[in-house]
Design goal:
elongated, binds adenosine-5'-diphosphate, 19 helices, 6-stranded mixed sheet
């Protein structure tokens, strides 16, 4: 532009046609640079997002069961959806745009210095002032963004609860209060988004207009310098053009920087969530074989000074069958959960073989102990994948697990690839439970735990599942919390452990306990 204007006043170095060629070359260079920028940017974002999400998921899955309960899954969901969109748009795009803008700014100042340093220094001072004013407002955006993310978490968690509680809402006709609850979280979220939008708009307006003022000021000063004969008209025009590259970044940087900082907050949020509470765990790897399990003076409470288990001493011998019975709230499920090391902080010792539970790595513990779960999670996949949990096993082992868990008839009818549906919607409660048993059997652990207490199964199903588990004659130690005081079943256990108020009050075979004529006998009479 400088050469073009100066050539009009016969002060230029190039002819018009030479300038036309220069323009074409420059134009092509800009197009190519833009293309390279766009392609590189898209690749960068794709790679960064893939890595970020993969790392987040790996870190989440690296947590123990114990830690996971602590983590708020709505926050994680929001971190992996809404927050990610902000991170993609503001942080990743931000890094690129900010870098490009800074390069433009430095190059423009360089050229301006080369043209006329006094005018450049004045421009720098004026631009710095405009930048400082805009930045004053920019910091508020970061706080606003954090608030939006928090409100998003709450809103997401409300939606999740409503969807999961749908049957309860319908049955108790609580649509109206629930809608109010949702309205409240929705309003909070939209208000937070409104504040964020307003702050960003304010930052934008302030930076636009202070920038425009500086631009016009430099233009006037340039023309004044031309009048004084300090610079040519071409240089004045070049200055005005170059000021675009200075003011462009200065106008957009406060907004970009505050959005970038705000997005960075979200990255820290996910990092904190994921790094939160990894509890200590042992490193010892148990060999997979029959171990006796020994509890000595074990006490445990969920709250301080309120023990749920009190001085429990027990031995579970390898390969034997144990029933744990007792009234509701006596600590049966807690005992099973302790064996799975779901809670730290118990007193006394739990030995598996010769090793204390605290020293055993969880991975190795889960190799040794399988659980027949209550709320069996069924993946939206085929029957086989749900049994093997997407791992490879020899067909013979899969078939054995299917036969032993009582799934053979179903699979013969529907096939191994029968689609189980979302949350197992194509299966009955009993079938889901059987899948859980098949998983455990395939797992070939030396200890099998089952808490029948919360299994929503009818009596017939419970009976047939328990007898499947108890009949199988292998070396697995079976520890089953049961409410099923059916005589034929109880006789299948080697030992029945009777719990009351967090302690073991009786223990022996079914016959021994009846003969002892103690608590179990009256409990059995009342229950049956
Ligand atoms: P059971 O299986 O014999 O019915 P539990 O082991 O489930 O008994 O519960 C024993 C006691 O511990 C109960 O008083 C119960 O309210 C309490 N409890 C169970 N789980 C928790 C928990 N996660 N947090 C606090 N208290 C709990």
């Amino acid at each position: 532009m400088q050469e073009l204007f100066d050539s009009a006043g016969n002060q230029g170095h190039f002819t018009l046609s030479e300038l036309a060629v220069i323009f074409i070359v420059l134009f092509l260079a800009v197009v190519i640079a833009q293309l390279i920028f766009r392609v590189t940017h898209s690749r960068f974002v794709r790679k960064a997002m893939l890595q970020y999400k993969k790392t987040a998921m790996e870190t989440l899955l690296g947590h123990t069961l114990n830690d996971y309960k602590v983590a708020d899954n709505s926050t994680f969901l929001s971190a992996m959806s809404n927050d990610l969109a902000t991170i993609e748009n503001s942080y990743l795009l931000g890094i690129f745009t900010i870098t490009i803008r800074m390069i433009q700014l430095v190059l423009a100042f360089g050229m301006m210095l080369w043209y006329h340093w006094p005018l450049t220094l004045i421009s720098i001072a004026a631009s710095a002032l405009a930048f400082a004013i805009s930045m004053l407002f920019g910091n508020r955006a970061s706080t606003a963004e954090k608030l939006v993310s928090e409100k998003n978490d709450i809103s997401l968690s409300t939606i999740k609860e409503i969807i999961e509680g749908f049957p309860v809402i319908k049955a108790f006709k609580t649509e109206k209060p629930i809608t109010k609850l949702y309205d409240k979280s929705n309003q909070d979220l939209e208000n937070a988004k409104y504040s964020r939008r307003m702050i960003l708009t304010l930052v934008n307006i302030v930076s636009q207009y202070t920038g425009a003022l500086v631009h016009v000021g430099i233009f006037f000063l340039g023309i004044y310098f031309v009048h004084c004969g300090y610079i040519t008209i071409g240089v004045a025009v070049a200055f005005v053009q170059l000021m675009n590259f200075v003011l462009g970044p200065i106008q957009s940087l406060p907004e970009l920087l505050s959005a970038w900082k705000a997005a960075k907050q979200l990255i820290y949020k996910l990092e904190n969530l994921l790094s939160g509470s990894a509890s200590e765990q042992g490193v010892y790897a148990l060999p997979v074989s029959g171990h006796n399990i020994r509890l000595t003076n074990v006490s445990f409470g969920y709250e301080e000074d309120k023990n749920v288990l009190e001085d429990v001493n027990l031995v579970f011998e390898a390969g034997k069958r144990y029933a744990i019975v007792g009234p509701s709230g006596s600590g049966k499920s807690t005992l099973l959960n302790l064996l799975l090391h779901s809670y730290d902080g118990y007193q006394g010792n739990i030995f598996i073989g010769e090793n204390e539970l605290r020293d055993i790595s969880l991975e190795s513990l889960y190799d040794n102990i399988a659980v027949v779960q209550q709320n069996v999670f069924i993946f939206d996949a085929g029957m086989k994948d749900n049994i093997t949990l997407f791992r490879d096993f020899p067909d013979a082992e899969i078939n054995r697990a299917i036969a032993l868990s009582g799934l053979k008839a179903l699979i013969e009818e529907k096939g191994l690839d029968y689609d189980c549906g979302e949350y197992g919607s194509n299966l009955s409660g009993g079938e889901k439970q059987r899948i859980s048993i098949a998983r455990s059997l395939l797992h070939k652990s030396s200890v099998l735990l089952m808490d029948e207490a919360t299994a929503a199964l009818d009596a017939e199903n419970t009976w047939s599942i328990l007898s499947t588990l108890l009949n199988e004659d292998d070396k697995t130690t079976r520890i089953i919390v049961t409410h099923n005081l059916d005589e034929a079943l109880l006789r299948k256990y080697d030992q029945v452990i009777v719990m009351k108020n967090g302690t073991v009050i009786e223990q022996g075979s079914f016959e021994e306990l009846l003969a002892a004529d103690g608590y179990f006998r009256s409990f059995y009479r009342v229950t049956v």
